[in-house]
Amino acid sequence: MRKRWGSHINYLGFLALLALIAILAWPSGNNGLLGFLGFLYFARYFRVIPDELFLLNLRRAATTAFLVEMFTLVPLMFLCTWLCQPESAMPWAFGLSFAAGIISFSLLLAVIEWRERQVEA
User: Over its length of 121 residues, how does the chain's per-residue pLDDT go in tens digits?
Assistant: First the structure.
């Protein structure tokens, strides 16, 4: 079987590049951008060789995170419309929904990896 070009690269590690957005907190004065430093966690995946089990675990975590993001968007739209100004409700709802998806993806992937290490031990 031929090996695909780039199959030894774990592309999940490239999510760590999103941490570069935190640099914009300094010139803009927007300290909320410092939250992007949390993406540095994904730099550890550059050292993980992606095998079939890793890709399956990644797919499971990503599917769940997508569903969490989609199912939280509509209730957050109503909640933010009720709590915030109508013109700022949509950006808040999308931002919170995105954060819920990223957090659920990260936590679920960590739990799946932890369970896998427990089985190996």
Answer: 455 655 678 999 999 999 999 999 999 999 989 999 999 999 999 999 899 999 999 999 999 999 999 999 999 999 999 998 888 899 999 999 999 999 999 999 999 999 999 988 7
Q: What is the pTM of this model?
A: 0.83
- Long-range CB pairs of 109-118, under 8 A, 24+ apart, other chains included: 109/57, 109/58, 109/61, 112/57, 112/60, 112/61, 113/57, 116/53, 116/57
- Domain identity same for 46 and 68: no
In 3-state terms, what secondary structure has residue 121? coil
Domain that holds residue 21: 1-50
Alpha-carbon Rg for the chain in angstroms: 18
Displacement of CA 66 from its chain's centroid (Å): 10
The answer to whether the beta carbons of residues 65 and 101 sit under 8 Å apart is yes
